[in-house]
Batch of 2 targets.
Target 1
Amino acid sequence: MNRYLSIFATFARVCLVRDMTFRANFILECVTSLGWMAMNLAFYLLVFTFTSEIGRGTGWTKEPFFAFVATGLIINSIVQALFMPSAEELTEMVRTGGLDAVLVQPLDAQFLLSMHRVDFSAFANGLVGVGLLVWAIPRLPHPPSPLALLLYPLLVVCGVAILYSLVIMLAAATIHLGRNQSLYDFWFYLTNFSRYPAEIYSGPWGGPLRALCTFVIPILLVVNVPARVIAQPFTGQAWGMIVGALLAALLSLVLSRWVFQSALAKYRSASS
Amino acid sequence: MSTTAGGRFAADQGFLARRLHAWRVWWTMLVICLEERLVYRGDFILGTLMRFLPIVTQVFLWTAVFGATSSGSIAGYSRNDIVAYYLLTMVSRAFSSMPGLAGGIARGIRDGSVKKYLVQPVDYVSYLLAARIAHKLVYYAVAILPFAGVFLFCREYFPPIPDWSTIGVFVISLLLSFLLGFFMEATLGMLGFWFLEVSSIVFAYMLVQYMLSGHMFPLDMLADIPTGIPGLSVAGLVRFLPFEYTAYFPAAVWLGKVQGAELVRSLLVETAWVVVMAVACRIAWWRGTRRYSAFGG
Amino acid sequence: MHNSSPSHPSHRPSEQPSAGGKAVLSVSGLTKEYRVYDKPEGLLASVTGLFHRKNRVVEALKGVDLEVGKGEFVAMLGPNGAGKTTFLKLLSGIITPTRGTARVLGHVPWERTDDFRRRFALVMGQRNQLWWDLPAAESFRLHKEIYRIETRAFERTRDELVDLLGVRKLLLQPVRDLSLGERMKLELVAALLHEPEVLFLDEPTIGLDVVAQHALHRFLAHVQAERQMTVILTTHYMKDVAALCQRLVVVTEGSILYDGSLGQIVDRFTSHKIVTLDFDAPPEASRVERFGFPAEIRGPQVILRIDRTRIADALPGILREEGVRDVSVEDVPLEEIVAQLFRSGTSDAAGISAPTGTPR
């Protein structure tokens, strides 16, 4: 474990050196991802000029909603920074044979393949997310309890773990398919459902969709659980969600591990 | 092909042969595009359907907003209008979006493959346009299925089908949006003659485009946002930019949001933008290639 | 002398330590099959491709047996697609075989235990493992972490290797700015940092110029001898083989065609020698034909192919011929033998192994 940490630190350092050699590019990447985020925030502000709450009686008024958005920014930026660049590179590695070089090294292949690149520019959004959260917390109608504040980081980690599992399974799928054109698209469309509070999915279509995105692909637990814990009153119901998020994180990690290993096994038996 | 006949006749035949040749090139391109699509068919239908997914979340978001407000309409849109609007912008985008165009041009400039268009007797811009039309036609041939499915499924959200003249204007606005989108992206790609890396410019363009084209929300919602200039709202300002014609405008025409003198004026502005961008694209190509050959590429 | 397995008789270099009797690497019946999908061409074909895809099974390796002792430097020679790279990938545990067994350093490679992976290295000539945008020194440091190399040992090995190759000043330059030859040298340093006991080299000299090839040869020979490393090298170039290896394995179409010493391949697969005669002036064809051997006239030079068994009888007569100034007798060049082996494939290996050749 200790060894993996130090290897990861070396990866991160190497990537930072790399980013700093292409500084202009790095700054540009920060700016564009910040631009994208600012645009979304402007859209939410626009929405709140027409309403004071997202969904009647849901409690997602302006400040709680922005705490929600901030949580989403933090979780997504962690995933984008730590896992996405490696996953995107995987198909290319299969094509060029770079995967072979990884497989001979005395390390867990999944660790190496999912974490060898760190995109530091993606942390820019996360920092804004933290800022937004710090702005929103004192303005919340129900200030979070110390317990909620304590649970929040843990639940953020759970959210990251769920998204990580998804990335890994998508990447494993690209080992099978041999190309990744749609990996990023698919990722975008999937995580799209996690962008808003789960309460908006109601009615004859929303109900089943919400159930699907909670119990089958637990994408709705990613942002919703930590955001609820911090931005909404802490009720008994919250415990159910917390346990659910923990379970979902654990199960999806196990499943993604299995999927990834079987994809590698297939690669090993199907290539020459 | 006979070249022994009299001068004038031969010239005519030459012209005919050239035309025929052009059509054959075009036809080959179409067939290749179609083959490419068919190879990735599963991807393609799934991909087209997936593109509707963000709309699903947007629709639920607006439904929740409508649920929280007592008024049945926001900026003149009922909830059903909003659903219809988002679906219609998908049609607009199917015409105006040019995936890979700017990036492809810039890549060609960077790796030097654009050189062959300086040598071959082909006009590059016309070639690109022909290729794009082929590409789009093939796209429509396959995408019509998922599109029809989604629209049929959501038919109750739409107002009654408008009269023929509105449908006519809708079709014209779509065709213009195709040309506008094409010339804007092609011009952007040709910036590659001057800048090594245009991908960030393209990304910035896409950001602005996404917001100001009305892809994100109906632009009428900006009507009450002041720009700082007295008497001019953000919506009023956006009306004079080219972006809204690539998504908002066709959808608004179908929904009857733009009518009468306003409609005529918008069509004129759109046409003007098409002309401006087409000219800009030409100029960029001329000056770019001159610069290119001067600096030895 | 080595107690060799029957598959590669004798002629093992005598400098092999007798302690190496235990094989470092042993392979038997190793077979790798894989499926390929034939991509249909044309519109109609792509449409029918919607419904069924044609696939066929390709055998990359067909039951290969091989045994290699400690400290051996083995060359695998074969045309493209012969299965050399597949073989190395199997021995490295990158891919799993369809059938057969293999043991490398006592491990089954495709079980991929960390202990095994820490004891060997694989270098592929056409792929780079160094980080493209960074100086090699950074990649080395990463290697140190991954292979858990002690700092002192790491620095000592790195300095030694870097000085041997004379690439110290390249360590701090981004790899993308280096030439292919320089890159390959650094790739080798990276691969040897953890002092592997077994080294697999997949076409390490591909695309390199003569000077760089030479430098690599010297380096590899030196390091291999010093560390008593077991090396398997695949290549297209006879030069690599001649410079480095005592033992040669020729592979075509997934099977081993020849396994033995470099010298013996000449005895085995050629029945004749090349006799070159220098005349005062270009001789007439009719004069040359009288010798009764296949001949080629190049100006004043005549090249004869004479059966080895008859050389002693034939030479005196030829030398008495008027106008012969000089004569040389040589073996058939290795390139030629190997090219012939490649061409003949597995099916009729006996065909070229002339009357004197021993059956495999």
Target 2
Amino acid sequence: MKIPATITAALLTLFLTSCVQKTFKKTVVFQLDASDIKGIKNVSINGKDQPLSWKNSTDMKVIKKDSLYELTTTFETGYTFTEVKFMVNDSLEFNNQDNRRVNFAATDTTFYEATFNKR
Amino acid sequence: MKFLNKLTKPLLLPYWSQDLFIAIPRIVCGYLLAFNFGADKFGMPWSPADANLGFFEVAFWFPNDVASYGGIFAIAPVFFAWMGAFAEAVGGLLLLFGFQTRVASFLVICTMLVAIFMQQIQNGLWNCLAAMGFLWIAMFYLILGSGRLGIDYLLTKKNI
């Protein structure tokens, strides 16, 4: 029995499409306590997964001046975690050390609280 | 059947020691492809847990990378991504054990040519070195087959 090429191609496409890792949307609320730093001019975050990146920093919103900063961002990812580092006055925390690992919560939104340069 | 036998049967060097010597790059490259480069983007039992990959699943980011090459890759990114990742992970495993060595070599050659000319060349020659290394190795085994140190040899021994 001959199977037409179109059916074979359709089945192959269906098979391969179903073999791509599933992605999901995960929202993370990053909150940074930078009260130990004096004279804060800017606070930002870098990370390994889009929309964050290691090349370009994303500014964080001021919640309480010279103390508390926040950023809410949504990742579309297949991973169960992401990695980030915070930056205050253009100085990156944990220089030459491991990144912060942020495990996504089972729910859609993860709340991540951190203190600058402290684990 | 005759064709399959021809495809599988390795060319043998005059001495065992020569076959042993040239099996080293095949085994090392096969291992690196299957357990490192391939397993990071293609779901194998030994893929890192952090990659969160199901069995035979291609990583979610890889079809997007492949689509960015443009042309035919943008038309069927999932197909090319899956084939490329399969060629590295499973093709690497086949190379490692010397099983269907020529088929595995062909898959690796295609994947490495794409990696060199569509992905790495714009980042400079230095970035092409890893893919070029795998390409040279696979080119040799496409002609030679597994040699004496592979499953292909055991399967076709009677006919050699």
